[in-house]
Amino acid sequence: MKKTVQRFARLVPLMAIVAAVLVPTVALAADTSIQPHSATLVAKGAEVDVTISFTCPVGLTIGGPFLMPGSGATVSLQQAVSKTEQAAGSGFSNGQACTGQSQTAIVPVLANVPGPPFRKGPAVASAYLGACDANFNCVYIQSGPVKVDISR
User: Fold this and answer.
1) 140 by DSSP, 3-state: which?
2) Quick check: helix, strand or coil at residue 45?
3) Sign of CA dihedral 60, 61, 62, 67
4) Distance, CA of 77 to CA of 88 (rounded, Å)
5) Which spans in the chain are helix H?
C-alpha cells in the first residue's frame, strides 16, 4: 500500500504539468476546423491533389514555426479501384500562416507503392491539422472520413 501511495504522489505533479500544457491547446481548439473538399488526378493516378478548407487561430502556422513533428496538414486517401484492389496514400503540407478565417490549401497525396494508382471516381478522404506558434501553443483537429470525387 505504501508503494502505491508513493507512486501516486510522484504521478500527481506530472499530471499537473500535462494539464497546464494542454490548457492553451483546448482554449484555441474552438477556432479550428478542417475538411477535404475535392480531388484532382495527377500523373496518371500516381498523385491526387486534394483541396482542403481549414480555419485556425491568427498567429499560428500550419506545422509550426519549427515544423514540429505531429503538426501540419495531412490528408489520407483511399479508393476501391477494383473488386480486389484498393489505392491508398497520404500527403503532407505545412508552412501556411493561419488567418482566423476560412482558408484553402492543396495537399499532394501520392499513391502507395506497391499498389494500384488512383483513378477517376469516388474515394474516401480524411484530414488532420496541427498548427503551432513560437511558444508551442498548438491546436490539433481532424475531420472524419469524407467522400470525395476524384476528377481529372
Assistant:
1) strand
2) helix
3) negative
4) 6
5) 2-28
The stretch 118-129 carries a mean pLDDT of 96
**Burial per residue of 123-132, b for 16 or more beta-carbon CB atoms within 10 angstroms, e otherwise:** bbbbbbbbbb
Residue-wise pLDDT tens digits, 86-116: 999 999 998 899 999 999 999 999 999 999 9
Question: Is the CA virtual torsion 88, 117, 37, 137 positive or negative?
Answer: positive
Cα 63 to its chain centre, rounded Å, is: 10
pTM of the model: 0.76
Q: Which residues, 6+ apart, have CB-to-CB distance to 104 below 8 Å?
A: 37, 51, 52, 53, 54
Going along the chain from its start, the domains and CATH numbers come out as 2-151 (2.60.40)
30: phi then psi, degrees, rounded to nearest 5: -65, -25
Phi, psi of 133 (to 5 degrees): -110, -175
Question: In b/e form, how buried is each residue of 90-122, taking b as 16+ CB within 10 angstroms?
Answer: bbebbebebeeeeeebebebbbeeeebbbbeee
